[in-house]
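re: that chain from earlier
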Amino acid sequence: MYRIKLFPDKKNICVVKYNIEYFHYFKTKYSFEEIFSLAQTIRDCLVQQEEVISIESSMKSEIIFMIETAGAAKTIKKINKLIKNTPVYINGEKILLNGTFGLSFTRHIQTQNEFKKLLYYSEIALVHAREKRLLFAFYSEKMEKQREKIEKDMSAYYRFCKEESILIPYFQPIVCNRCEELVSYESLARLKSKHEVLVPFEFLDIVIKMKDSAKIIEAMFTKTFNIFDETKTRFSLNMSPRDIEDRKTRTFVLNKIKSKPEISKRLTIEILEIDDFINLSVVKKFIKEVRGLGVRVAIDDFGVGYSNFSRAVELDIDYLKIDASLVKNIENEKSKLIISLIVDFAKKINCKTIAEYVESYRVFCILKDMGVDYSQGYYFGRPEEKPQAIMQNFYQKLA
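^ sequence. v structure.
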């Protein structure tokens, strides 16, 4: 554990934990000395800030430092901007660093134990920020209760390891905006514990850390295929680029598609979180193979983060799923402008658009008027276990 220089006379201190994004990728590609230069670059950026009281660690994927509480949010934004605008060159390759901050604050730190406690709080805030896709987060007791709940749900994860049947697909309807007909379902993973049904953000990080995401893919494809063997409706399943890069998972999916050609012609694979660090050649080859077998392909969460227009041109896809954050803020002119750009762009590359997070008739009408092709969200139906029940509820609502 870290031992720090204490500042008993310093008042109102924030302990900050900064996590370097894609560190595990960097670790596989670069040497220890090169990795150290990444951390040193961040340290150099911190040294330039007068608000930084001390830097406690620059090892591995996390940098720990302390700042003054007054104006902490402004300080973090300033530090982040400096880090992002300070490139690192390794063997001639330009690397722009990015990351997330977790903060906890106190009036003063007088003992090592007090520092350890604040460090723990900063970790909780960091995990919360990463889950919510925030630049930074301040610790609150509410976050700790959420983490305690997730830790309790670890028992459900271990049951999942032993008994695949508790992982079940739930389905959410996708509706054609033009004809207002239910045309497809997205198959969403749910983990059944004794008292509740867990959604992915409550267990997926744990599964990925345990390197068991292949089990999720295999269970979801097998169970969803079995369900849609009895219907003629289209459906979609999610895969991440990491799933596609994994040879065993990729082979399983391709074999499943080939073994059920009639069902596969109704399948859309939604690819999540396409970024600059994937093996693009493997993903492109996979997309070409599945489309050759009649499967359609969508890019999920398009319009923010690492999704970008050039990537969509590079990949041969059928749908762009507009990121939920844009739809959620559709009353905001900037969000509306981005959605309009996506719709126009999709038409030019012969793609259809799907909007997620459609939660009201008003939002649906705005999206329809903007030319978005399909909608998905609570306005049309929440995820449920039985597609037939969803269809019945949908048409009762329209009646």
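The mean pLDDT is 84.
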